[in-house]
Amino acid sequence: MTTTAPTVTDAVKAAVILAITNMKGGVGKSTTTINLAKYIAQFSKQKVLVVDIDAQGNSTATFLSAVPKDALVGSDLFKAELPEGRLPAVASERVHVIAGDRLLKSVDGMVASDNAAARRALYQRFRANLRAVAQGYDVVIIDTPTTAEHRYFSAMVAADFSVTPALMDAFSLSGARDLVQALHDTKALYGNPRHKHVGILPNQFSKRSRLHQSSLEKITSAGIKVVPFQLNHRPAVQDAIDARRAVWEGDSEGRVNRAAGSEWKSACKAILAEVLQ
User: Fold this and answer.
1) Which of 158, 169, 192, 207 has its Cβ near the most Cβ atoms within 10 Å?
2) 146: in domain
3) CATH number of the domain enclosing 61
């Protein structure tokens, strides 16, 4: 019996917006963004908009060899008005990209952290701009930066859903508790009460590690939702990203790490089954 990838139903009019979030770096946010976008395009046959609001632009570099000069970029989404005539860059028939750019760093100084009204206005501006650009797409995936509070919350406020790649290290439980607080603030303070967290996605996981097992158990016991797939630590994952391909896609000689590919496809399918239900 074959299974099919989840798809957006006819009843869904607007694009579904999914934010890949974690304030920590090196946890796999860009890797998750890249593989989810490729999975949707390849298996769900739907049109995806990747929004890179990380100035490092890792997702951008994977999809685009160069950013067109007249393309819409991440910092444009924080402006009072969208630049006229600018559109997302085309990576492929089904994947378009709003590229990460250096000016995104200026967003972090636009409003004071203790000015709640100004923060909410900034986040809502980003949301309105993104919703306007998202017309014509089935799914929007936002790749978020590390330790950039305003861009992090802008993504959370704009998104219908979020998923959190995380390492099961000694700080994972405290990080999960911070996430719970951020979700509360997104809903109660910043104007997105319907935001839904799909779960924490354990990445670079080792079943042989007592720390990884213990950390996962503590998070689960705390009542924090976890995606029901652990992504094992495999060098093939980074090799695939460096080669600008999905984990399940073969290299130039057709070689593919089947275990890594199967894990990532299963994780993508589990996430999208909830997002696109």
Assistant:
1) 158
2) yes
3) 3.40.50.300
Q: Which residue range is the domain that position 205 belongs to?
A: 16-235
- Between CA 39 and CA 42 the distance in angstroms is 5
Contacts of range 207-213, beta carbons closer than 8 Å, 24 or more positions apart? 207/232, 209/168, 211/168, 211/169, 211/170, 212/168, 212/169, 213/168
Instruction: Confirm whether 89 is domain-assigned.
Output: yes
Structurally, the chain folds into a number of domains equal to 1
Q: Does 4 fall in a domain? A: no
Record the tokens describing residue 270, joined without a space: 């589990």
* pLDDT tens, residue by residue, 70-114: 999 999 999 999 999 999 999 999 999 999 999 999 998 999 988
- Residue 29 binned pLDDT confidence (cut-offs 50, 70, 90): very high
Whether the full predicted model's pTM is greater than 0.85, yes or no, is yes
Shortest CA distance to 76 belongs to which of 60, 97, 96, 98?
98
